[in-house]
Amino acid sequence: MPKLEQFEIKKYWQIFTGLKPVDNKVDHDQVLPMLYNSKLDSSILNQIWFLADIDDDDNLDFEEFVICMRLIFDLVNKNISSVPDELPDWLVPGSKAKLVKERKKLKQEENIELPKANDLPQIDWYISPEDKTFYDNLISSIQMNTDGTYTLQSISDALKNKFFNIGTSDINKAWTLVNPSSSASINKDPALYFIHILRQRNDVGALIPSEYPTNLESVINKKQIDYNISSSQNDLTRSSAIKTPARVQTSASSNNTTLQRTNDITINNNREAITLNEIPRGNPNDINSLEKELQLLDIELMRVKEEVSKQTNTTQIKAQLQELLNYKELQYQRNLNNKTPKTPTNLNSVRDDLSNLESQVDILESYLSDKKSELDQLNQQIQSHNQ
Q: b/e map of 293-306 (b: 16 or more CB within 10 Å)?
């Protein structure tokens, strides 16, 4: 590592004054854009800041700023491969030498040892109501895709301003955990657990696991809801065929063609969600067991609330179907008035289509009612646990 040159100090001074220091000091927010422009991992930037902030006041005076900039440039230019554990003597300013010695002595007395992997705290998967509120507020500030999902880039960009003790490897490992299908984006529930994991990694250094609990499988692997009634996701199949007559009757008593129409609608609603009867009942005398039961109830409540909130507005569908019927009837009347229609419109076919669509709306309304009832039961159970 080459020593400081005079031209370097002048360059750092120009940068320092450009940040508009207050009382000859700059805080972390003022230096943050320069730190991110270096493209270094956030964990490395945290180590550099710790070394440079010799007096531990969360601000950098010019001498400390020089240390910070020099370490960053040396890493970017590959002059050094990692952040040194201690500052080299030639980089310690004379006015800070005493503080550096005191810090080194204190470190030796405390005999700090890095915890082994087995000694690291484990991830607590339970999300308290307070944590849920914090995560909801955080995720509301993140740009969402049109399908209601979130990308890794959008979430990680928001977390960089909140969690300073996590690195790119932590983010990638947590993303792989909550996104086992390797999709380009994830739903809100996995995104909440993604933030929950990284927050514990940032705050207490919790070890990111390689797998999640089995009771979270329905949350992590939940597919996006498709409201298209013709979608295969809901196992909704429709076969309709308009059969033309095999022959045309030429007698005077039968001049009309025979039109046959078949409509087969089959709905198989196979849900993978946890039902109330599937939630294990905890031992009322065991706090841990009750907490696990409450966690399952919270997860199911979160899922039901999301599904209820995403139900299609059936009133709007009916209004749109009615407009379609009115349009078809108007088209039919125009064809009658023209007296020479190219292809006569079959009003009965239109009415059959409308009837089928209305029956599907009724099914959706029934499904919505069941979900609301299930939501009420969950709320009652949670209230009984809280009492």
A: bbbbbbbbbbbbee
Report how far residue 357's alpha carbon sits from residue 323's, in angstroms, rounded to the nearest whole number: 13
Q: Domain 118-220 belongs to what topology?
A: Recoverin; domain 1 (1.10.238)
- Contact by Cβ (8 Å): 216, 302: no
Q: Are 75 and 44 in contact (CB under 8 A)?
A: yes
User: Across the chain, how many H-helices and E-strands are there?
Assistant: 13, 6
The DSSP secondary-structure symbol of 216 reads G
pTM of the entire predicted model: 0.34
Residue 195 Cα distances to 49, 208, 260, angstroms: 24, 12, 57
Intrachain domains 6-110 and 118-220 with the same fold: yes
Strand-pair partners of 263:
240
d(CA 223, CA 219) in angstroms, rounded, equals: 9
Cα–Cα distance for residue pair 112/100, rounded to 1 Å: 17
Closest-CA residue to 296 (of 218, 241, 229, 374): 218
Measured in degrees and rounded to the nearest 5, phi and psi for residue 53 equal -80, 75
Categorise residue 236: left if φ over 0, alpha if ψ from -120 to 50, beta otherwise: beta
What are the percentages of helix, strand and coil residues in the chain, rounded to 5?
A: 55, 5, 35
CB 7 within 8 A of CB 19: no
Tokens 């503080």 correspond to: 99
Query: Cβ neighbours of residue 8 under 8 Å, at least 6 residues apart?
Result: 70
- pLDDT tens digit string along 205-263? 899 998 888 888 888 886 555 444 444 444 433 333 333 343 334 333 334 433 333 33
**Rounded to whole angstroms, how far apart are CA atoms 220 and 209?**
15
As a whole number of angstroms, the distance between CA 274 and CA 188 comes to 18
Instruction: Decide if domain 6-110 falls under CATH 1.10.238.10.
Output: yes
| Interior angle at CA 290, CA 289 and CA 292, nearest 5 | 65
Q: What is the maximum span of the chain, computed from C-alpha positions, in angstroms?
A: 117
> Could you read off the pLDDT of 108-121 as tens digits, one per residue?
555 545 455 556 78
What are the boundaries of each domain within the chain?
Answer: 6-110, 118-220, 239-250+258-386
